[in-house]
Design brief:
By secondary structure, this protein is an alpha+beta fold. About 30% of the residues lie in helices and about 25% in strands. The chain has helices at about 30-45, 95-100, 120-125, 160-165, 200-205, 205-210, 245-265, 270-280, 290-295, 315-330, 375-390, 405-410, 415-425, 435-440; strands at about 10, 20, 25, 45-50, 65-70, 75-80, 85-90, 105, 140-145, 150-155, 175-185, 185, 190-200, 215-220, 225-235, 285-290, 305-310, 340-345, 360-365, 395. The radius of gyration is 22 Å and the shape is globular. About 45% of the residues are buried.
Length: about 450
């Protein structure tokens, strides 16, 4: 008999959202998950599955039953010939990266954070950058899904194909993802080069930058023209030591938190803080070589509110210039650095923000110095308005104000996804407050 724990307080990593599940479970087997689902049905409770709890929104919150998948975290199979790995849904990518390295394999692309579970990464559409690379769910070639009824479905391009296209970005509302099979590539090192530029230069020569580097992104420092361009490309060079740069960066971030706390009393300081930190940390060229996952990942040093929308790539220049103009025309609206701009290849995953179009992700943040909330509503609404105007779609893991009406316009395949969801979970056992706004 599986036992749940009461009195657990769940909070996401940023401590911006939380909930108090009635019962908190850490199952070790499929049989235990089935028991939990049976118990939920008997007590008329909903169930929310959570992995690393890193999503900066309430997508993982529930006051009913919570299943944390951390004890179902094994590597089940490594197929060196096909270069594929099958894992349990609860494995953190940080652990998977190390295991793959032992077999001379790697994931072709990773997000910035690896303390996230495999099932959660695909469920929210995690992405990085690289116009020849899709979002992380595009690396999934098969998965198994435990439905509300207790049935296990094998899903791939050739088996349960429609469910596969839905489940590759599942929002946690189709069932419990038990296993995921990723397509890998041979292990590789990356050469990272970061150098200063201007927003005008980058936007005027965007196609050149996209062609020049496989994993190109850039950081724009609001209230200025300053940009840090980042190229990351496979290399045969030996790993280099960047210890002094990392140390400078860490010290800089402690100073940043203190200055941003002061700016909560004097918001006009933010534009100077952005410029100062560009000069301090980003105004000179920096190079680094390391194994791929160590370059893809970087440490989020303190808590933040985040929004991240994907727009058609051809709208990049227009949207960013509009955001810049909006900040210039509204001096009371302050924006912390950086605005992170990344790119991803179009795909056929039904709820992917990159569905059937190459996309530009524009990620904005407002830090929470020492946990203090900073006014952000005007910035958020200004940004969302620009993103919607240019055909944007919000990142599913991050905060947004969209409802079903918005998603029906944004996603041509939204009705197909809803149909699959209603078929697999007719009583809505896997819904929560966040998902009710999406589907109702």
């Amino acid at each position: 008999m599986v036992h749940g724990q009461g009195g657990v307080k769940f909070q996401n990593w940023a401590k911006t959202y939380g909930s108090s599940p009635e019962l908190y479970f850490q199952p070790t087997s499929v049989e235990e998950i089935r028991e939990i689902l049976d118990m939920a049905r008997q007590r008329d409770k909903r169930v929310k599955v959570v992995g690393g709890g890193h999503s900066p929104s309430d997508i993982a919150c529930t006051d009913d039953f919570m299943i944390q998948m951390g004890k179902m975290n094994r590597v089940l199979k490594v197929d060196k010939e096909k270069q594929q790995v099958t894992v349990e849904g609860g494995i953190f990518l940080s652990d998977l990266n190390v295991e793959l390295s032992k077999h001379g394999l790697a994931l072709a692309n990773l997000g910035a954070v690896s303390e996230v579970a495999a099932a959660g990464v695909i469920g929210t559409g995690t992405h990085n950058t690289g116009i020849r690379h899709g979002i992380l769910p595009t690396q999934v070639v098969a998965l198994t899904l435990l439905t509300a009824s207790g049935e296990i479905l094998e899903c791939s391009e050739s088996v349960n194909a429609d469910i596969f296209q839905a489940a590759r970005l599942h929002l946690g509302c189709l069932g419990v993802v038990l296993t995921v099979t990723f397509q890998c590539v041979p292990q590789f090192h990356l050469h990272e080069v970061a150098f200063p530029s201007t927003l005008t230069e980058v936007l005027d020569h965007l196609e050149d930058h996209l062609k020049r580097s496989q994993y190109f992104r850039f950081l724009w420092f609001p209230h200025s023209e300053n940009v840090s361009v980042i190229y990351q490309d496979p290399t045969n060079k030996l790993p280099s030591s960047s210890a002094s740069w990392v140390w400078d960066y860490a010290v800089g971030y402690y100073l940043l938190e203190f200055l941003l706390w002061i700016s909560t009393f004097m918001p006009s300081l933010v534009c100077w803080i952005n410029r100062f930190f560009f000069w301090l940390l980003f105004s000179s060229r920096v190079e680094n070589v390391a194994i791929s996952y160590k370059i893809f990942n970087y440490e989020c040093r303190f808590k933040q509110h985040v929004q991240d929308w994907a727009i058609p790539i051809e709208k990049t220049k227009e949207a960013l210039l509009e955001l810049k103009a909006a900040l210039e025309n509204n001096p009371k609206v302050v924006a912390h650095y950086p605005v992170e701009v990344r790119f991803a290849q179009g795909d056929e995953i039904w709820l992917s923000p990159c569905f059937q179009r190459d996309s530009c992700y524009i990620n904005i943040i407002m830090y929470r110095p020492y946990g203090k909330n900073v006014p952000r509503l005007n910035y958020w609404l200004t940004y969302e308005g620009i993103m919607k105007k240019h055909g944007g779609r919000p990142h599913w893991a991050k905060a947004h104000s969209c409802t079903r009406k918005d998603f029906e316009k944004m996603y041509p395949a939204f009705p197909k996804f809803c149909s699959i969801r209603e078929k697999l979970d007719p009583t809505g056992i896997f819904l929560n407050t966040y998902l009710e706004k999406v589907f109702y």
